Structures are given as structure tokens and as C-alpha cells.
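We treat protein structure as text, and this decision shapes the records that our systems exchange. Such a record has a labelled line for the sequence and another for the C-alpha cells. The record that follows is passed on verbatim for readers who wish to inspect the format:
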Amino acid sequence: MSLAAPSCWFSALSSRASSHSLTSHTRKPHSFIAFKSSEHPNHYPTRGKTRKSAPENEAKIQKSRRSPSDEYPPSNAEGRSTRVTTGQTQPSSLKSFGLQKKGKKGNVIDSVEEQVETGNLQGAAFLNAVVKVYCTHTAPDYSLPWQKQRQYASTGSAFMIGERKILTNAHCVEHDTQVKVKRRGDDTKYVAKVLARGVECDLALLSVESKEFWEGAEPIHLGNLPNLQDAVTVVGYPLGGETISVSKGVISRIEVTSYAHGSSELLGIQIDAAINPGNSGGPAFNDQGECIGVAFQVYRSNDVENIGYVIPTTVVSHFLEDYEKNGKYTGFPCLGVLLQKLENPALRACLNVPTNEGVLVRKVEPTSPASHVLKEGDVIVSFGNIRVGCEGTVPFRSTERIAFRYLISQKFTGDKTELGIIRGGQSMKVQVVLNPRVHLVPYHIEGDQPSYLIIAGLVFTSLSEPLIEEECEDDSIGMKLLAKARYSMAKFKGEQIVILSQVFANEENIGYEEICNEQVLKLNGTWIRNIHHLAHLVDFLGITTVACMSFVSACKDKYLVFEFEDNFLVVLERESAQAASTSILKGYGIPSERSPDLMEPYLDSVGQNEAADQREFGDGPISSSEFGYDGLLWV
């Protein structure tokens, strides 16, 4: 299987003013970009660095591995991206906008059933429910994980939805340190709290404690999924001014769409109304004044114009119901299988599939509950009581069809569903539990800071898409590691790719100073499962602090031997490495030898007999973008 152009296809998709791209087609990938505008229109901060350029200078880069948990894409792959050009033909960009500048207040929305007169929106009650979001972001520095990047500010849009809650895009409040909102026609900004953030669906829920903010407010009413060519009005606070902005258009298309921020694929609405930086998080209304979705991204290309995207109310309702049921966002579930279309009659006949339907199971993820039920070679012919076509589609509304993964995205974490399958020519029914996908290389890091461990100047951390994005700027990540990040899948929950990201020069690590971004496989012969496991092994060998001194007497090893992916060794003398660590940390101004999460006791998530030899870990592609053939896709 050949790899795409070597120039960094992976880059973490962030909600900043940098561009983020997703490959859209497995054979002719397009670049989908997501970005936010900042308080200053010409100032676009990027991970780790600040750059100043016009919006059109956003770099595009093919996002290679996605984790379309439960997606089986017809035309969109997964990815994130930033500043590097991919060398793809016909590049296009899907941008998720969400910030800008001032706003005003007013009352809130009136969920009137009567039609709003065209051209007479000035006094429309629903405009008063749309608020402006002011966010200060402080993102982690993934290359120097003990510190954060310089903070920056941005603005976006949001709207009130009832129970004193506000809905906006997740990328508008990513890495937030302070969030404020302001109503239309008001000069006061009120502090808001982020209650939940859904990365995959690019939605966030806010609350404001101030009673004054809610005086006279009425929530916006969520409407139903619109029809093609229905009129749509997008409201928000985009660049170009400081007051509320309204743009009109029609519904152009409804289908499963790539979500740039979450590197996922969910139902989306395509519209031709103008969506600009700052519109992110703002509502889209029908002619009855009902909200039919949330503006979040646009498709940019020299070959197209006026293609914007709205998150439909079905996805919004799933996000809100998930939060209400669990008190937090748990995510969209997936099936965790690689499927092949069964369009060829001979292929169907060979598998004893009597009708023109079904999709062939080619691989099942080890971390998916489906691995206990489905086998390679099974043919899935129904999901619940809905038949699955040979192209992996199912009926949608009256006369349409939509990707099979749409049905899975309607379920919640922990739900059970019945699959109709053909195995060895025999029809049967099986029950499958649906859970969110386990990512070997995550697209977003949960918590404030990434994990790290420093041993005698050797800096270890876990591989993530944000780290890849930063390091790709300097071309410091090799093709082998990029390929592993793109093609690999987790063999067990908690598995990570642990890398030596850099070496702080010291006499203890002479000869190793030039090593960077190399995967470490073993420590003293023991396979490393994740960064916390590495810290545990180091503690057991008595390298670190007093908490582990009781283990020192039990350890007879004089050296620390690290074995790396490219068949080379790093050997440190155990006692001298421990003695040198304190001076190295002080000399480089690093507050601690490890991140706070690695100070917690290590809990082994893998059984003693399970995964004893990890040489087979991460041996398969994990997303639809991994294939040059449209017939193989992940669900």
C-alpha cells in the first residue's frame, strides 16, 4: 500500500487561526480547512509560533489518518492540517470559522411559528437570542509539554437554547482560559463557563451565572431537518463589522460530511449563504424563525464558491441529550470495522449473498466490542431493521439514501444494536455494543497538558496529532513514524506510541543529542505500553525520586537500556542518570521531571498474558483515507 506525498499530511486540527484540513476523497483528496479568526483580522496565531498573514495564506496539508469512528465515508477522509502544502491535485479547503470582534445585545428569541418576512428582519425576535463570544485561549506547547503557548484572543457567535444555557462551536472555546459573552444591544460582557465540549461534533455548551444577563431572554426553538431548497438565514458576528450580521441562502445538500475540527464525519447541511470568520457558533434559521442548525465551516477552493456548512439539529440534539443523560459529553459511538462494498456480482456469489445488498467485514478493531461478535468475512446486511445496500448506504427520508454510518451516529455510547449478518452462507442475528473509538494517536488531548517524562535529559512524550502538527513545521518527524500514525490502530485501551521527542545536551547523554521524535519500544527488555507505563518502569528501576527508593534494592540492573523502532539503543548508567537529572532540569528551567498525571499510581489496563509481545501492535490502517480504493472504508 503506497503512501501519499511525504510532506506532512498529519497535522493536528485546532480551533485557532491556523488552517486545518481534511482529505475529502480517497482517490482525489480535497483539503478541508478549519480556522478561527482572531481579534485582529491579520493576526493568525499558529501552534508554537505566531505568524502574521492574510487569511488566504493559510497553509493546507493533507490530513492522513483520521479516526472516523464509525464512519464509512463516501467522499471524505480524515484529517487535520495546517501550514504545509500537500501536492494534491485540485486542493480545496473546508474552513470552520468562529471568531471576530464586538457585539450588542437585546432580548432573546421568540420561537414564533409565523413566517418571517423577507427583508424585514430588523425587529425579528430571534436575532436577540444570538450573542457574541469573546474567548482567551492558552494552548499547550506539545513540543515543550511542561509549558503553554502564548495566549491569544478570538471572537465567535453563539445563541441561547433554554435552561439558561448557550450553544456555540467547540473550536470557538478550545483551550479556553476565559470566556465572555455579550448580548445584542448591550455593552456589558458576562463571564461564561464551558459545561461540555464535543470535539467530534464541534459543539460546546456554555452557562452564564449572572441573572442580569438572562433578563427578558427566551430560548431559540430547534426545528426539524429542512428540505432541499428551503430558505435559510445565517446570523452571527463575522468579520467586517461589530454589529450582528444576517445572510440568506438556500439548503443545497444534506449528507454525511467531514467535520474539520473533530476529524469526524457526521450529518451536515450544505448551504449557499455566506459564512465568514466569526460566524462560527451562530444559528441558521428557516422562514418560521426556527433554528435548523449551527454554522461551523465552509468549503474553499478556486473551483467553487458559496459552499458553507451547518451542523443540523439532529446532531445538536444528540449532543444535548448525551450531556443531559451523562452529565458530560461521552461522544458518538462507532462499530469499529473495516467494510468493503459488494457491488461486484461475482464477489456476492462467492460469499453466498443472494441479494444486491450487504457490506463485507475485512477487519475488526481489537478495542471494539464488535471484535467479540463479528469476524472477518462476515457480511452485514442489516442494522436494526434497516437493510444495508451493497454500496454501504441505507434509506434516508422518502427518496434518498445516505451512508450506513449515519445510523450508527444516531446511537449513544453503550447502546446495543442488532446486526443481520451472513456468515459462511448462513443468515444470523448478533447483538453489538457501540462505544466511541479508541485512538492510538489522538486528535485532541484531554486535560490541560500533554504527558511527559524526562530522564537524564531525554524527553519522552506520547505521539498525538497536535504534536505532529508542530513538528511537521520543521520536518523533524520521519516518514516511518508518520506512516505508523496514519496506518496504526490500538490493540488495547490505553495503548500509546511513546517517542523520545528531544534530548537536552549533557555529559550523561553524549552521543544522543541529535536524536528526536523516535519511537521507543522497550526499556530493559520490557515492551512499553504507554507513557505512564514507561514512568512506572523507570520508577521500578529506581531512577527517579524518593517515592520509588524501596524498589532500588530489588533492581540489579546497572544500566537503563532503551530500544527504539529503528533498531538502535540508548544506554544510560542508572545511578549517574539519576544524579544528573536534577541539574539538567535546573539548567533548562524545567519545573518537574514529569507531568502531574504521571505522579499517580500506574494501573495496568492490560492483563499479564494479554499483549505480552507488542511487536504486532498497530499493524493496520485506521481510517478511510488510508486506501486508494473507494470500496474499503471504516465504519
